[in-house]
Amino acid sequence: MKRLFDLILASGALLIFALPMVAVALAVRLTSPGPVLYWSDRVGRDNSLFRMPKFRSMRVDTPAVATHLLADTTSWLTPIGGFLRKSSLDELPQLWSILVGDMSVVGPRPALFNQDDLIALRTQHGVHRLRPGLTGWAQVNGRDELPIPDKVVLDVFYLQRWTLGLDIRILWMTIGKVIHARDISH
Predict the structure, then answer these.
(1) Torsions phi, psi for 78 (to 5 deg)
(2) pTM beyond cutoff 0.85
(3) How far apart, in whole angstroms, are the C-alpha atoms of residue 18 and residue 13?
(4) Which one, of 67, 60, 14, lies nearest residue 36 by Cα?
(5) Is 155 helix (H, G, I), strand (E, B) or coil?
(6) Which DSSP symbol is given to 11?
């Protein structure tokens, strides 16, 4: 049921956002050197690695670490990178990851391959069994502001209480967060 929900939502979203995605791709291409998409190695279901696309919001020479570990995040942003991140438009290419089955619309956000502390805590609590999501319970309850142990507590809540209704609630909450650009620090 969840996979069918993902396929329907991702396909519909691709139709709705096709033109905005073309516009974002052109804007990225015209405002900074390098590829339009940034492919990062992420940890997926059962701790398997997959390549996750995003519109590139950072310079091509940015270190491959979690953004909160950079000393000055803004110095690494492209001219439109801050806007892409605040508006979450940089996340739209992940619809592809949903269609191919690497991600779900709702689930814990995929960890970077080198976020050993997050991966270990999620594995310890069984969260690694979930397909990572474009949005999730932790994203609508703090997003960038949450320390890793708090994110994992929210991921465990989602694991233990998942329903289609909870996914729909998270989607509505996500829309509100994106519209108001709340809880986004970088």
Answers:
(1) -75, 170
(2) yes
(3) 8
(4) 60
(5) helix
(6) H
Would you say 170 and 137 are in contact if contact means Cβ atoms under 8 Å apart? yes
Report pLDDT digits (tens) over 86-125.
888 999 999 999 999 999 999 999 999 989 999 999 999 9
Tokens of 181: 């650009």
Cα dihedral 106→122→102→1 (10° resolution): -50
Judge whether 132 and 43 are in contact, CB under 8 Å: yes
Please give the structure tokens belonging to residue 117: 């502390």
Which residues are CB-contacts of 183 (< 8 A; sequence separation ≥ 6)? 139, 142, 143, 144, 145, 177
Burial of 77 (0-12, 13-18, 19+ CB in 10 A): buried
Q: Which amino acid, one-letter code, is at 25?
A: A
Residue with tokens 């690695």: 49
Q: Report residue 27 as tokens.
A: 């804007």
Collapsed DSSP state (helix, strand, coil) of residue 67: helix
Amino acid at 95: L
- Taking phi first (over 0 means left), then psi (-120 to 50 degrees means alpha), and beta for anything else, what does residue 46 get? left
